[in-house]
Amino acid sequence: MAKDAAAAAAAAAAVRVEYSEWSAYLLFHPATDIHGCIIYREQHPIVFVDVGEDIGIPEEFSENEILQGIWWRHLVSGAAAGAVSRTCTAPLDRLKVLLQVGMKYNVAESHTLQPTKGGVLQVHATKSNNLGIVSGMRHMLQEGGVRSLWRGNGINIIKIAPESAIKFMAYEQLKRLIHSDRNRDLTIGERFVAGSTAGVISQTAIYPMEVLKTRLALRRTGQYSSILDAAIKIHKHEGAKCFYKGYVPNLLGIIPYAGIDLAIYETLKRMYLTRHSQVEDPGVLVLLACGTCSSTCGQLASYPLALVRTRLQAQGTMAAGSTQETSMVGMFRSIIQTEGVTGLYRGIAPNFMKVAPAVGISYVVYEHVRRYLGVTMT
User: Fold this and answer.
1) Residue 105: what are its φ and ψ, rounded to 5°?
2) Angle CA(323)–CA(324)–CA(329) in degrees, nearest 5?
3) 242 contacts: CB under 8 Å, gap ≥ 6
4) Whether 9 contacts 16, CB under 8 Å
5) Under a CB-based contact definition with an 8 Å cutoff, are residues 152 and 213 in contact?
6) What are phi and psi of 265, to 5 degrees?
7) ∠ CA(350), CA(47), CA(203), 5° rounding?
8) DSSP single-letter state for residue 103
9) Residues 45, 283: contact at Cβ < 8 Å?
10) How far apart are CA 303 and CA 17, in angstroms?
11) What is the C-alpha to C-alpha distance for residues 368 and 86, in angstroms, rounded to an integer?
């Protein structure tokens, strides 16, 4: 009866349940918990945005949605959407890593720099070497062909599922610890603390995959035969500690990203509802626009930390005998001294170029997969 009443109200685009429907429901389904009566009318629009980074605040689910299994359908739909989106934008993602680190291999056309031992040429992308979007894309094609554009994409897809699952489970447990009063919703501050901590836990668990992703994106043709081969060789030559290079700036980047993402998202949503007072639900497209804007601003704020993280992760690929900064502070100082403040934003252009297609693709795939799994949300 409750489901029929809710379906009828939704079909009629109504925002309330009529008294006759409500009384009929109470007559045929008596209950002492008023929350249990109205929970069927609960509407929870969910939007999914994947821009290649999964360090934002996890999605909120009610107890009823968790009991109905909507949470795992959301995770499956998000994983599928992220896999397709990241695969489609993988060439831009690899180009971003190359520009951040400035790697080139076996470049016979270079007249100013010669390959080091092993045929590897390593140089940071600076104003002096003019390594840019076009030259970087041309280099990738010359060095490894079209297939090389997707180097590192395999591990990038594999890490989606464990990262999302660990973050969701940690978030739910942290919410219970922080939020003892279940009769009220979490405040933005409580969501930020729980979400950021959950992000730290998930990033700690899957961080070796992040290092592998960077190394595989920077590898030479024929250097590694598989993901496992890369892990074995890296461990053999550099030890287990190398799988946590750049760990500190990665964790520090979660705070500005998650905080700005959540604050801007909630601010934009509140501004829309204020200007459209007759609207109770912003709608999926509005939420999608808010999510895209907030995640982009979060990436912009945390990008210098992401760049330092990537350069620390890539240290094992540098030429023998080259000077390497092994600390976060030392890397920041080195970049500013040699490249200026703008050097902290190397590679941000392809990073922004992939936002629009990534958002569009992830949203479309997410909607199709969740409908296939039987999840209907307004």
Assistant:
1) -130, 135
2) 130
3) 211, 234, 235, 316
4) yes
5) yes
6) -60, -50
7) 60
8) E
9) yes
10) 48
11) 17
Q: What number of other Cβ atoms are within 10 A of residue 10's Cβ?
A: 14
Q: Which two tokens stand for residue 319?
A: 């030429």
What pLDDT score was predicted for residue 187? 82
Helix (H, G, I), strand (E, B) or coil at 316: helix
Gap between the terminal Cα atoms of the chain: 20
The string of DSSP letters for 185-232 reads PPPHHHHHHHHHHHHHHHHHHHHHHHHHHHHHHTPPTTS-SSHHHHHH
- What pLDDT is recorded for position 243? 95
In the prediction, which pLDDT does 374 show?
79
Residue 164: other Cβ atoms inside 10 A: 20
The pTM for the full model equals 0.78
pLDDT under 50: residue ranges of the chain: 1, 10-15, 36-43, 105-128, 319-321, 378
Residues contacting 365, CB < 8 A, separation 6+: 77, 80, 81, 84, 85
| Whole-number pLDDT of residue 376 | 62
Q: Are 82 and 362 in contact (CB under 8 A)?
A: yes
